[in-house]
Amino acid sequence: MYVARGRKLAVIGAGLMGSGIAQVAAQAGWDVVLRDVTGDALARGRAGIERSLERFTAKGTLGTADAEAAVGRITTTTELEAAADADIVVEAVFERLDIKQEVFRALDRLVKDEAVLATNTSAIPITKIAAATSRPERVVGTHFFSPVPMMTLCELVRGLRTGDEALAAAREFAESTGKTCIVVNRDVAGFVTTRLISALVVEATRLYESGVATAEDIDLACKLGFGHAMGPLATADLTGVDILLHAAENIYTESQDEKFAPPELMRRMVDAGDIGRKSGRGFYPYD
Hints:
Layout: E1 8-12, H1 16-27, E2 31-35, H2 39-59, H3 64-72, E3 74-77, E4 88-91, H4 97-110, E5 116-119, H5 126-130, E6 139-144, E7 153-158, H6 164-176, E8 180-184, H7 193-209, H8 215-226, H9 232-239, H10 241-255, H11 264-272
Helix pairs in contact: 1-2, 1-3, 7-9, 7-10, 9-10
């Protein structure tokens, strides 16, 4: 496997996605600084990384020494200035354009000229995020999938002004962590994968909401009829109903395509806190 020696990555946001990206990068030899706004968020992120690595070592797919070395390559901080000397910065904060633009506006003033600024957004056009900077040619989408240590795909997304050099650097980074990349040449909202899964989840929810079929049978139809590893409603529970609701809303706002308009049931579930596995209940109950 490619090992990134002497390369520094900054990950902004220590949630599920940010900590996962930090983990796979550290395993690949990157020196990683993981930044969040509170010490508690950083502690949760580091604990999640350590638990993930422990599962790999328990299965025998990762040596204990390698796991310890990966943890040792990760430092945590609440200071955004720690990203100043990074070669690549990956933003993984909440999926809202104004929040992401605020982060990129600050990073633009901090990082070195040759740094690549990447966003892990799953639905927001890269061009809108890049517009908050003075270097849109250095901004690129790197959409990893959850759980990052297990999922092998990364969508590389061009904004209107993303340069070839930034795209190549993002590909080198993603491939160094063991990911296979696809390139999205036009940053329509939702890119490729989020548009596909959002359309499927929205329609599956409508079928369930109107009583056409049970959640179990809708998911079983997709698994046995289409060869999907997991049905769309179970996928929504795994990803987070709230996350997919925001994604569908973003795509609908941009496209005004009715197939992405979220059903009332999704909004009610989010209002009730029934957002999937992380809350204990979504389309299915969880212990």
